[in-house]
Design a protein that fits this description.
2 helices, Tachylectin-2, Chain A, globular, six-stranded antiparallel beta sheet, mainly beta, five-stranded antiparallel beta sheet
Length: 299
């Protein structure tokens, strides 16, 4: 199938020049978050992936890789199209510090869903590698590539309401470099104290058995809107702190940040209530980063 060329409009129906302006502005102020879109800091390219299908054959679908330069030149190409009942969904991408783009997505094979990974180097995509192999629905992955070609991935282990996992993989081989863990849950008898967040507009607490924190759902995959502060939209992902990945999830106005203790390697959590957080002047990722940076070195 030949590559598609886009001129002026995206598949999402918004002017592409406006999208570039929005993304470049967001990179500077940290106010835009999109797990399927990245901006290459070396040249300003906007890179994004999405799910597309063939209008003449709805059973054929796949992922589309798209680029746009700062001069407005656009290109799009399909990636590894599949035929029903194999369905690709929930793509997410990240830039590799050593070069190239890494993509992780969910592939439904008619029975369950597994996570797949591929990387783009020198204009070509590598053969997809399976990151999971089980009987559950592994979906909604988020990826962050760190040093030494290691991709850190968080995902929903069985859809919404299932476990929230994190694991690291070698980008070149697809092999795991860590065990699968649940970063948003660690049994705790002594909760971390409540305190005012450094950015204002939210309170922090620690320990999933903290009074007022739902111990039965705070560690699970969930995406509930924040009615009191619609800007605090459901989200999850990763940041790097003290050289290690920290995971987060925002749901129902509650941000849970899981940070690995550098001494014990166990996970500890911080809760941030974003009911009044000023997300017009900061971003969820910025709040997560500040919490993770502080907690990864705190005894």
């Amino acid at each position: 199938m030949s590559a598609l060329r886009l001129t002026g409009w995206s598949l999402r129906g918004a002017p592409r020049r406006s999208l570039i302006a929005l993304l470049l502005c967001a990179v500077m102020v940290g106010a835009f978050e999109a797990d399927t879109t990245v901006v290459d800091p070396s040249n300003g390219r906007v890179i994004y992936v999405e799910v597309i299908s063939d209008p003449e054959n709805p059973g054929e679908q796949g992922l589309s890789y798209n680029e746009e330069t700062t001069q407005g030149q656009t290109s799009s190409e399909p990636i590894d199209f599949t035929i029903d009942p194999v369905i690709d969904d929930s793509p997410t991408i990240a830039l590799n510090p050593t070069g190239g783009v890494v993509m992780v997505w969910s592939r439904h094979d008619g029975g369950d869903s597994e996570l797949m990974m591929s990387r783009r180097e020198n204009g070509l995509w590598t053969q997809p590698r399976a990151l999971t192999n089980n009987t559950t629905f592994d979906t909604e992955a988020r990826v962050l590539v760190g040093a030494q070609d290691i991709a850190h991935v968080v995902w929903w282990g069985n859809g919404e309401g299932g476990p929230f996992y994190i694991r690291s993989f070698n980008v070149l081989t697809g092999q795991p470099t860590s065990t699968r863990q649940e970063p948003l849950w660690t049994p705790r008898t002594t909760p971390r104290p409540m305190r005012t967040g450094s950015g204002g507009g939210f309170n922090e607490a620690g320990g999933m058995d903290e009074p007022g924190i739902p111990s039965t759902t705070g560690n699970l995959a969930t995406a509930i809107p924040c009615l009191a502060n619609p800007a605090a939209a459901p989200a999850h992902g990763l940041v790097m702190a003290c050289g290690q990945p920290a995971a987060f999830q925002l749901s129902a106005c509650q941000l849970v940040v899981g940070v690995r203790d550098p001494a014990t390697q166990s996970w500890r959590q911080t809760i941030a209530k974003l009911t009044t957080a000023p997300l017009s002047t900061t971003s969820v990722t910025a709040i997560v980063q500040s919490i993770a940076d502080a907690q990864c070195v705190e005894p």
